[in-house]
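A favour, since you know our structure tokens better than I do. What I am after is a single protein written out in full by you. Could you add the entry underneath, on a fresh line?


***
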Amino acid sequence: MNHKPLDLNTVQAYVAAHIGDFHQRRLESLQRLRLRRILKRKNPYLFRAKHILTAEALVRSILDAHLSSQEETLFGEFLEGLAIFVCAQAYGGHKSTAEGIDLEFQKDAVYYIVSIKSGPNWGNSSQINRMRRNFQQAQRRLRQNPDISQVVAVNGCAYGQDNHPDKGDYLKLCGQRFWEFISGNDRLYLDIIEPLGHQAREHNAAFRQAYAALVNRLTQELLNDFCTPEGMIDWEKLVIFNAAARTL
């Protein structure tokens, strides 16, 4: 498909319409949290080494660690959807059904397959090798199509920089390079910032209220179940809950 000039109003309308979904899922993720489930997944030795003394401080530490990971995942999914939408507008791109591939589109007689990640430091060597295998498998399938002469694999990263994009068997395009690649617009990486703040104050106010209520509830639960009668954190009891061998 030939390049179609990108309508920024359409992109901004998409962002404004869908950023609320990110905030709603973020809030729902917070409301689903349960103390014992989080304690099972977090490293009690780390929190002990940080010399945490109060139940509230411990609750905030484990909540913030959990939420940081959750928000990165949820916002990554939002950015993936935005990238596919943008490419559909500019080049007729579409979401891929191939394993590990997010986006497919054709530009200048080249067929591109794209794996979209949030930032450049997204995976270890085994994860990168898995992406390479997914690229190879998709390329073999697509080359069976007589209408496709050249297939190029791209690891697209929504933010960050990588000044050596040619990785041999695939390209790694980050930040401005990625957004320009899928849109033909070298300013898109800047233009999408403003609509991301759509109703952010209202969304964050609701989130802060839910966060405060959850901190209070989990702190009370921690005091009841994992603190001594004198009010000190019972680290031995907490570590037993997290790490002790269970009888099969």
Remarks:
- The first strand starts at residue 94 and ends at 95.
